[in-house]
Amino acid sequence: MFAEITTWIIETIRALGVWGVFIGVLIEAIIAPIPSPIIIMFAGFAMIEPGMALLPALLKILLIITIPACIAGLIGNYVVYAVCYHGGKPVVDRFHKFLGFSWDDILNIKKKVGGRHHQNISLVVLRAIPIMPLSLVSAASGVLKINWRRFGFYSFIGMVARNMVLAFLGWKMGEIYFSIANKIDNMESFVTYSIIALVLLVIAAHKLKVAERIERWVTK
Fold first, then answer.
1. SS3 per residue for the chain
2. Per the confidence metrics, is the pTM higher than 0.85?
């Protein structure tokens, strides 16, 4: 089911551009198993011309990918935040398969978050790590009763960094795609296989808790 949703999001981005990015990220922010790196990287690949100079490309990435994605992500994050703020453990236990994380995952993050200053840094770092599920961070923030203004502000900062990097990588990878296009009969298949490989990489990194190790190293 999630693979079908991901494919639909990619096609929506191809058809609607900025609004496709907004819709895709909004859905991903609530449904954790959908890999957000793929959405933003594909947007960079599909929406930024491969021959653009660096500075114009970065400005375009900021305006038509990063900002819409951050706004959509923040809206979706607030939905999960509010649910866990008011519902807590019963909601997570009941919908953990849909959310993509368990109550134990939230407790693991809770152990790492100390005072207010540490919470702010953790929010930025966790949002900036591409392989960290956004909804897990939102759920933990709701359970911890982090102030909603601080939650939104520091989440937005982290997501700006995350989305800029991912969209840039998608754009640069796009240059590779186009450079070998003449040698590939079906460009769509090549992109599809690349996306599948990235999905597997994201899942493997999540299983190995790579994001948690990076966050622990940065904030210690």
1. CHHHHHHHHHHHHHHHCHHHHHHHHHHHHHCCCCCHHHHHHHHHHHHCCCCCCHHHHHHHHHHHHHHHHHHHHHHHHHHHHHHHHHHCHHHHHHHHHHHCCCHHHHHHHHHHCCCHHHHHHHHHHHHHCCCCCHHHHHHHHHHCCCCHHHHHHHHHHHHHHHHHHHHHHHHHHHHHHHHCHHHCCCHHHHHHHHHHHHHHHHHHHHHCCHHHHHHHHHHC
2. no
